[in-house]
């Protein structure tokens, strides 16, 4: 009698109930899937209950382990899953195998099809087919590649190219036939006009002043030579001065801040403007000279930003001051120069210090810088501020605005100061006051806003960490010692518009923005509404100096009268739907004030 255990090798085991349903056509498919483990046998079959146990792996000298999950078992011998051959013999079997081969071939084709569609090398070739302003390069933005598009430059619709002809060598005329200007491209005037019209919408106070005084022409006969940033906002100021009766000639106070299309729009409107974005140092002084040195035209008013125009007139054309009625200066640097001239007894005309007026200090310097510092850094470096260590040099109104913005975004902010009062303010505002040398090795960003020179020296730059960002929010490019970086051992690499990597011999890089010049106007834009406050203040200062009776202002530096400061503020209140409370006669008498102002003494600090 044959034992049951011998039947396992001699004959197929009794199949479950579902086995008879397997047709002869399906049987070979079971044979051609040896990689799949055999399904567990019913528990009622003793032969199948013990078979897996015999093939289960044994422990190292120990008792047998429990069988692993069927999916983890090696493929069992084919004979354990043998199925009776279908009727038809060997020919039917070969035919079925051929049919199965076709099926598996189709499945393999479907599986491999997506892989054939992934052609990375070809895709990269497709990317390079798209031309850009810097040549054929990848469409992806990379800080390691030069970029001259509007995103990188931000402050202007068009950017200068090194291989283009200098505007000084071009012969251009506007639609009126005049060529008394020098701009990048007069054909951009239409676009610049739209920029100016957009700015006018948020400068309603200056437009209101223009409409109120246009009939009186308080600047009739004024010949104003100006040197300021040439943006859409300053264009509104220039056109306001012209509407009030003045003749204007204008140049830029910063070689990177000019919006070319706005300069073109001013030239088209008849303003003698000499400025373009990306001027050289020689171009800068040439433009100023073209504004001042004119046959048959002599300025009698100066509007300056930084003192460069005033300095040029003193050095080259001192006789012009015989007819100058006054100077209006709006920057810390320029005001400092005026006080130096006054102290030395060389200031021969009255000068109005707009920078220290309340409307300039508390609004333009603070609120404008608080918003534009972030814009400038983001556009140029894409830096994330959260957790970054930043040192701000100077805690005046500009420094206060920068610190407040950076702190709000989670940066760790240090402050350097020379003034104990400003230093105490920084401490009370939650900032740590340090010397620059104490933190220079660890900070990620260095921002200067002092108006001084050599605030960041070569020694500081040598000690900075790799990829430290260095920028300036003051007026002049003297705050960072950029000249010391132009040496043979250091390599300059332009990675974006206004972004240079200065590379040390050991591979360390310092990211220098705008070559140390004013960051927000060189690399981004500024809030129009805040500039409306400053522009209105400048216009009133020019009107005051030009129309002041002889003897009111002597050869000294003056602040804008408090009454005018309050008038500038009152012009901007309607934009916020703000309503002032009026003093009663009794209240005004009690305070010793005029009901209509001024409401604070000149020594009051807001």
UniProtKB/TrEMBL annotation:
Keywords: NAD, One-carbon metabolism. GO terms for biological process: angiotensin-activated signaling pathway; apoptotic process; epithelial fluid transport; mitochondrion-endoplasmic reticulum membrane tethering; one-carbon metabolic process; positive regulation of sodium ion transport; protein export from nucleus; regulation of monoatomic anion transport. GO terms for molecular function: enzyme regulator activity; identical protein binding. Residues 1-100, 129-179 are annotated as: Disordered. This is Adenosylhomocysteinase like 1. InterPro entries: Adenosylhomocyst_ase-like_sf (IPR042172), Adenosylhomocysteinase-like (IPR000043), Ado_hCys_hydrolase_NAD-bd (IPR015878), NAD(P)-bd_dom_sf (IPR036291), S-Ado-L-homoCys_hydrolase_CS (IPR020082). Residues 18-28, 140-159 have a biased composition (Low complexity). Residues 90-100 have a biased composition (Basic and acidic residues). It comes from Gallus gallus (Chicken). The keyword DNA repair does not apply. One of its GO terms (cellular component) is mitochondria-associated endoplasmic reticulum membrane contact site. Pfam families: AdoHcyase, AdoHcyase_NAD. Its cofactor is NAD(+). Residues 64-77 have a biased composition (Pro residues). Residues 365-526 form the S-adenosyl-L-homocysteine hydrolase NAD binding domain. Belongs to the adenosylhomocysteinase family.
């Amino acid at each position: 009698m044959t034992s049951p255990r011998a039947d396992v090798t001699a004959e197929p085991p009794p199949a479950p109930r579902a086995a008879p349903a397997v047709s002869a056509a399906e049987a070979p498919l079971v044979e051609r899937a040896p990689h799949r483990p055999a399904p567990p046998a019913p528990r009622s079959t003793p032969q199948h209950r013990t078979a897996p146990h015999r093939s289960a792996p044994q422990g190292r000298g120990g008792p047998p382990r429990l069988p692993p999950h069927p999916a983890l078992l090696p493929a069992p011998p084919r004979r354990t899953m043998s199925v009776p051959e279908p009727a038809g013999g060997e020919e039917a079997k070969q035919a079925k195998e051929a049919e199965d081969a076709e099926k598996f071939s189709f499945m393999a084709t479907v599986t491999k099809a997506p892989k054939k569609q992934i052609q990375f090398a070809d895709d990269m070739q497709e990317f390079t087919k798209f031309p850009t302003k810097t040549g054929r390069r990848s469409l992806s933005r990379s800080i390691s590649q030069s970029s001259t598009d509007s995103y990188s430059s931000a402050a202007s619709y068009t950017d200068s190219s090194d291989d283009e002809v200098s505007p000084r060598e071009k012969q251009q005329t506007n639609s009126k036939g005049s060529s008394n200007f020098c701009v990048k491209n007069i054909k951009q005037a239409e676009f610049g006009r739209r920029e100016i019209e957009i700015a006018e919408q948020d400068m309603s106070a200056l437009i209101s002043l223009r409409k109120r005084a246009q009939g009186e022409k308080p600047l009739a006969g004024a010949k104003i030579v100006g040197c300021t940033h040439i943006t859409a906002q300053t264009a509104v100021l220039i056109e306001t001065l012209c509407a009030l009766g003045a003749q204007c000639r204008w140049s830029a106070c910063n070689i990177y801040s000019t919006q070319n299309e706005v300069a073109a729009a001013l030239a088209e409107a008849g303003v003698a403007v000499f400025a373009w974005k990306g001027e050289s140092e020689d171009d800068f002084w040439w433009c100023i000279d073209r504004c001042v040195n004119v046959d048959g035209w002599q300025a009698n008013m100066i509007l300056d930003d930084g003192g460069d125009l005033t300095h040029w007139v003193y050095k080259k054309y001192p006789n012009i001051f015989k007819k100058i009625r006054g100077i209006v200066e709006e920057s810390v640097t320029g005001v400092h120069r005026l006080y130096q001239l006054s102290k030395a007894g060389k200031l021969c005309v009255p000068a109005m210090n707009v920078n220290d007026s309340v409307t300039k200090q508390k609004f333009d310097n603070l609120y404008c810088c608080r918003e534009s510092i972030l814009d400038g850094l983001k556009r140029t470096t894409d830096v994330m501020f959260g957790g970054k260590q930043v040192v701000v040099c100077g805690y005046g109104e500009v420094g206060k605005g920068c610190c407040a913005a950076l702190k709000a975004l989670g940066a760790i902010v240090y402050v350097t100061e020379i003034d104990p009062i400003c230093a105490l303010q920084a401490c009370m505002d939650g900032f740590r006051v340090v010397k620059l040398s104490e933190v220079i090795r660890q900070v990620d960003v260095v921002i200067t806003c002092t108006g001084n020179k050599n605030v960041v020296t070569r020694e500081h730059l040598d000690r900075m960490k790799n990829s430290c960002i260095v920028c300036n929010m003051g007026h002049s490019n003297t705050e960072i010692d950029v000249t010391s970086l132009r040496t043979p051992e250091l390599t300059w690499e332009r990675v974006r518009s206004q972004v240079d990597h200065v590379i040390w011999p050991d591979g360390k890089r310092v990211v220098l923005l705008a070559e140390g010049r004013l960051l927000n106007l060189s690399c981004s834009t500024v809030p129009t509404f805040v500039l409306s406050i400053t522009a209105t203040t400048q216009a009133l200062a020019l009107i005051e100096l030009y129309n002041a009776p002889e003897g009111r202002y002597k050869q000294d530096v003056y602040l804008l009268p408090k009454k005018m400061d309050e008038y500038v503020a009152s012009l901007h209140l309607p934009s916020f739907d703000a309503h002032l409370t009026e003093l009663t006669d009794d209240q005004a008498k009690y305070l010793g004030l005029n009901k209509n102002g001024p409401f604070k003494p000149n020594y009051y600090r807001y």
